[in-house]
Here is the input.
Amino acid sequence: MSLDLFLLRCPKVELHVHLEGAMRPAVLLELARRNGIELPARDEAGLKRWFRFTDFNHFVQIYLACSRALRRPEDFQLLVLDFLAEQATQNVLHTEAHFTIATHLANGANGGEVLGALAEAIAEGERRYGVTLRLIFDVVRNVGVKPADQTLEWALAGRQQGVVVALGLSGSEAQFPNEPFREHFVAAERGGLHRVAHAGEHAGPESIRSVLAVCGAERIGHGVRAVEDPSLMEELRAAQIPLEVCPTSNLCLGVVPDLPSHPFDRLYHAGLALSVNSDDPAFFNTNLTREYLKLHQTFGYTPAQLAGLSLAALRQSFLPEAEKSALEESFRHQFEVLGRELFGAAVEAPVS
Here is the structure.
């Protein structure tokens, strides 16, 4: 129980979570009521049963339903504020979340209204809960170049408003190439945006090499299949290019057969830069705290090692360096205080 409390209360940063995939059943019910949308269930218990993951097609079905439910600016605000309240409950002090704006534009939303609503909710969430959120607007490989153009346009506009920090790449890596989006990432870098990309999840090491070359990716979403190529693992270790690892997501989506088979521990002991993340927490019945707990249960990681992973995520974030330094000092102090309270001795995270 002491470890559970430590993980819940220790300060954390999350770098790979999708806003749409964090929509709790209660929020989806409210949005469906507002917008006259028919759902497979009419109460929270029924929706929780529907949310129980079965296969990838089921995942896509729920994701699209959640996306369709977001129509008006106040819908996006509800989603963000509910998400930030949950992050605050877990002491997740900073989050960098993926958001697929082109999906909402295709559903008829106004880009300027969506961006304004997101910015307003992010500011309100920081005032209410003391946690910060920045967004990664995702290009989706399998919907073509025109939506990518729109995504880049709104990502650059969001950077000007201070709420978008990166251009991302998601979608099917196994069937669709990265090359058509090379110029989008060149333009993103030119415009002051960071670059991240999903790779090495449903395709192998070649997918990771491609996003490094084509997108100039500074962080890799998932990236766990790097373990199949020792030379790539060494390149990632030497360059300290972070992998945003989502263990439960990998289990649910069939990347690994069970958590003991997950390559996290091999990547960790090989010295790669890793962060722990929840990906689509509402869909996979998880959250960031549970992901840390599963690492302890599966691989025996100590409180100090888990605190070190929390600090790693902070360092890998796109926060300004001065903010990272100040937060790291605060994180270390909180680890020490919590350790003394819960374990009778300070928890000291490794110094990188």
